[in-house]
Amino acid sequence: MGRTARIRGRKHKRFLDKSNIHDFSVLRDLDHWMRSLNWSPTCFLTPHFFSGTGRGLKCLELIPTYQVLMKIPRNLLITTFSISQSEIIKIFSKTRNYDPQTVLSVFLCFEKHLGDDSKWKYYIKSLPDRYTVPDYCKNNEKTILSSFILQDLPKQSQRVVNNYKMIVESINELRNRGNDTCGHCRGYLREILSFRDFKWGFYTVNTRAVYIDSSKNANSLVNIYGEDNLALAPFLDLFNHSYEASVDVGLEADDDSREFYRIRTLKPFPFGSQVFINYGAHSNAKLYLEYGFFIVDNPLDEIFIDYGMIERSLLLSKDTGEFIRTNGFDRSIGFSAEGFNYHGKIVLFVISTDLGQSYWKERIYRYDFSENEMLRIAELGIKLVNFKKMELIEKLREMKKSVNHSESFKIFLSLTDEYIYLCDKCLGNLTSRKSNN
């Protein structure tokens, strides 16, 4: 889906992926094409370039609560059923099972290859040429990304590779039967569906697909494993994300039994404002990994601390370390701008308390700490957050030594700066609590 990040004045303006800022004539063509296929707007929205978020949708009227923001007819949704009407369906062997994202990725690649002969050409032209998710960082940049991204990126990257290998194997089976050329241009499918193109298709789906009720999805004629619940909807990717937005989405039918994908806002939007939707309750690490952007001052953001860093930074007794690990408190230790999370506070309490171990569990499960204990937790927390802040500053300094940054890496540099700022906010709150005790 769409992308957004509100940038503070102290930071440089958020990088805007030029491949995602098309001439608005492309969007006018998309609008005209959709109207020709019985789509009509449900409220007065217009594409607009916003200084903080880039391309988005601006309302030309007051939008009240429960207003339908968009209704996309079922015939304008790209689902796995769409491939049943395409020549490229021959790639999908009846002896293999494919996940929906792979099917949609191949479909998009082939439709892009068809160019002006594609039914979906106006939608394809509205899509970016590349994305800003971390998998689009250069290889040397990937090696110096921070651990909170590196722990999930290899799994995602490998999924793209594995899914592509399955497609190559399917194409090889067609080649053995002399049926591996495109009926449109007579080119070889292996060349048309390159890894670069497949990766583009994969992340188009990853950043833009919406979920629909799989029970209402038509049979795709392809062996699908997992939930067949993904759909691409033209125009919807113009809606940017905000954690403050609240929407109700789903398939619905009108009185003539025609189905639509509908988005209804549960909050009003004033005249002239940008209209947002909500992709889910995501931290900045999740937003960057899945969508290629982050949000400044994201209240859902959290920095996690490796327990190994705590052991290296603080002198822990054997009994203390064993208690923390045995009870699983060493996992998911983190802090937000407001302070430490549950596991973080528990670990800080156990490390700082003078009480004997027999009292620890009672205190922990009552989650009832004295003023003196809260003071110690705050003091130790300040020390740990400062350790993490220094680690991030050093990491940022190291990353900035590289040159010719990819656009994805530029966003990650800004994200790291945002995490340093989050540390400062947390330190401010912890210091304030310490002073009040």
Keywords:
alpha+beta, set domain protein methyltransferase, domain 1, set domain protein methyltransferase, domain 2, 2 domains, three-stranded antiparallel sheet, disordered N terminus, SETD4_SET
Describe the structure.
The protein contains 15 helices and 12 strands. It has 437 residues and is of the alpha+beta class. It has 2 domains: 18-291, set domain protein methyltransferase, domain 1 (Alpha-Beta Complex); 303-436, Alpha-Beta Complex (set domain protein methyltransferase, domain 2). The strands form 5 sheets. The chain has a 3-stranded antiparallel beta sheet with strand order 3-8-7, with no helix packed on it. Strand 1 (45-50) and strand 2 form a beta hairpin. Mean pLDDT is 90; it is low at 1-21.
Concise synopsis of the structure shown:
This protein has helices spanning 24-36, 100-114, 121-125, 139-142, 147-150, 153-176, 189-192, 195-208, 284-291, 307-313, 318-326, 342-352, 360-366, 371-400, 407-436; strands spanning 45-50, 54-59, 68-73, 210-211, 230-231, 240-241, 247-253, 259-265, 276-277, 303-304, 334-336, 339-340.
Give the amount of beta strand, in percent.
Answer: 5-15%
* Total number of domains: 2
* Poorly predicted tracts of residues: 1-21
CATH architecture of the largest domain: Alpha-Beta Complex
Tell the overall outline.
globular
GO molecular function: protein-lysine N-methyltransferase activity
Domain SET: 39-280
Protein name: SET domain-containing protein 4
InterPro entries: SET_dom, SET_dom_sf, SETD3_SETD6_MTase, SETD4_SET
Question: Secondary-structure map with pairings?
Answer:
Elements: H1 24-36, E1 45-50, E2 54-59, E3 68-73, H2 100-114, H3 121-125, H4 139-142, H5 147-150, H6 153-176, H7 189-192, H8 195-208, E4 210-211, E5 230-231, E6 240-241, E7 247-253, E8 259-265, E9 276-277, H9 284-291, E10 303-304, H10 307-313, H11 318-326, E11 334-336, E12 339-340, H12 342-352, H13 360-366, H14 371-400, H15 407-436
Helix pairs in contact: 2-8, 12-14, 14-15
